[in-house]
Amino acid sequence: IVLPTGLGKTTIALQVIVDYMQNGTGGVLFLAPTRVLVNQHYEFLKENLLIADIGIVTGEDLLSKRKKKWMNSVVCATPEITKNDFARNMVSPNQFALVVFDEAHRTVGDYAYSIIAKYFENTNTRILAMTATLPSEKEKAKEIVTRLRIKNLIERSDESPDVKPYIQKTETEWVRVDLTKEMKAIQMCIKLALEERYKELRKNGLRLSDNKSLSQLLNARQFVLTQNRRSAKPLFTAIRITYALNIFEAH
């Protein structure tokens, strides 16, 4: 499921979980990359599922406590601790009929999601993957789909005809804070790395403005992939760096 933030991915997951619980086919594992997200999902499921045995497993728990928590019908957990406990045989992947991967775009390389997915390669366990965006690079998107054994991909945006009527008006309040001395040093390093990529792209013939906006980089993708392949690596690196800078400065 590819759906922008705030448009109901967790609610969709809830509907699927309810269906599996009613059929009594096995347990449910709900994975999220951070403790904060895991706690959010845990509280949401606890409020909306009419069952008592919902557990939460993170690195904050001792081994002795985790073993008991893994016995719940529904378990919300961080990927790193799940990977480690699978390797320790503390919990068997076979006990789960459904696994939900939140922020599924992280299932690349040697990230814990990739390793966890391998445990379910030759099983009948259903995988529900959720993300707000798939990577723009075709190979990375293909890697995610392959690793998670995705057979059906459903994508919507806030402009989709079947979604747009239900979009609620939101207001954004920006709170400006001063960066610390250490953060300013990191910011400078990120900006220097971005400037190096811009120099390389301009050298390769791309006309880019000095405002270093993400939109102009995204708009250049098609041209680079079809007519200027040597610029592909610096362009996609610049996109990643710009994302990193935006997150660093605005979160």
Automatic annotation (TrEMBL):
Transmembrane segments: none
Keyword terms: ATP-binding, Helicase, Hydrolase, Nucleotide-binding
GO molecular function: ATP binding; helicase activity; hydrolase activity; nucleic acid binding
Family annotation (Pfam families): DEAD
Domain Helicase ATP-binding as annotated: residue spans: 1-152
PANTHER family according to UniProt: FANCONI ANEMIA GROUP M FANCM FAMILY MEMBER (PTHR14025), FANCONI ANEMIA GROUP M PROTEIN (PTHR14025:SF20)
Protein name: Helicase ATP-binding domain-containing protein
Organism in which the protein naturally occurs: marine metagenome
